[in-house]
Amino acid sequence: MKMSILIIVVFFCATGFTFAEVIEAIVARVNNQIITLSDVKKAEDDISKGLRAQYKNEDEFQQKFAETKKNMIDRLIEQMLLIQEAKKRNIEVEEELNDSIAKLKRENNIETDEQLIEALKSEGLSLDSFKNQIKERIMQQKLLYFYLQGKITITDQELAQYYKENPKEFTEPGKLRLSIISVLLAERTREEALALAQNILAKIKAGENFSKIAQESSEDPSKDKGGDLGFLTREEMNPKIAQTAFSLKAGENSDIVETDTAYLLYKVVEIVDEKMKDLESAKSDIYTALFNKRSEKYQQEYLTNLKKENHIEIIYNPYKETPAENKKQTPEEKH
Questions:
Q1: Residue 81 CB neighbours (<10 A)
Q2: Where are the beta strands (DSSP E) in the chain?
Q3: Packing angle of the helix pair 127-149, 279-309 (nearest 10 deg)
Q4: Rounded to an integer, what distance in angstroms lies between the CA atom of residue 214 and that of residue 266?
């Protein structure tokens, strides 16, 4: 018997009582799979986090968030269709999945799976669910790429032209490897903190090892690494530090720099100058940029065909404003 109900309900009978427990709300069916209200809320939370990072102005954030929610159900249906189709075609993504996890670890200075598991816990994720999210995303991308590859042609001449017209995209900014010593103002008067910083500066000028002093005296989290902050671009630094740091040579130390929360001393360990990638190194990035730009038309064409070829039933759209708008849509009504 075909079921088209909004709520899955389980009935229990015990000692003469009958009661119902609401398990989940069904939003849509895509072939033999369902999209639940929990799926929608999770997608909404993920998008909200992404937009928050992108739009700091509250009004702008709310506007973009409202626009995105209008198409939320349709996007979730499209994602499910792509995953189903990728599985039908036995698309393998294990190599790409492993590469993505390895890259994520490198970029976040995570060395072991145990460290990754702990980092994911703070985001409310398990390692398996996180890997599955990435795997499904790669499956969708790979399926679309296979379809679009035969539709889009990009010549070497076009790659060279794009490289010539967009030099900033292929210029890696200059960066410095810094070590830092911090004397915090918390629980000290400004005079007391400055006196400590001056004492440390005197030791550095006397030739004592900067890293050793950082381990002994710094109040920055980097103290265990001898104050090493790694490589930073100008944009990634406190403006007060950047102003002086980029005027120093490798191996030179700064004077005391005052911020709102601390007195700082730092050392420029290594300098990497700004450089532009050569065309050969940039070709892969350029190809991806042009491919993505031209793919939108064909991607929508493919998704439209998938929707026509598969059974889709929207049962409840939480973003529709009226009951009339929220009536059940059959595939015929949708297409």
A1: 22
A2: 7-14, 17-30, 33-36, 171-172, 175-184, 228-233, 257-258, 262-272, 275-276, 312-314
A3: 90
A4: 10
8 Å CB contact between 230 and 143: no
- Nearest 5°: CA angle at 176, between 214 and 167? 160
Query: Can you give the residue ranges of every domain in the chain?
Result: 1-69+311-335, 174-273
Q: How far apart are CA 333 and CA 310, in angstroms?
A: 14
As a dihedral over the C-alpha atoms of residue 164, residue 169, residue 172, residue 178, rounded to 10 degrees, the angle is 160
Residue 192: band (very low, low, confident or very high) from pLDDT cuts 50, 70, 90: very high
pLDDT in tens, 202-247: 999 999 999 999 999 999 999 999 999 999 998 888 888 888 889 8
Number of neighbouring beta carbons within 10 Å of residue 192: 12
Q: Residues 87-144: pLDDT tens digits?
A: 999 999 999 999 999 988 888 888 888 889 988 888 888 999 899 999 999 999 899 8
What are the φ and ψ backbone dihedral angles of 212, each rounded to 5 degrees?
Answer: -65, -45
* Range 174-273 has CATH code 3.20.20.70: no
Strand partners, 130: none
pLDDT > 90? residue 182:
yes
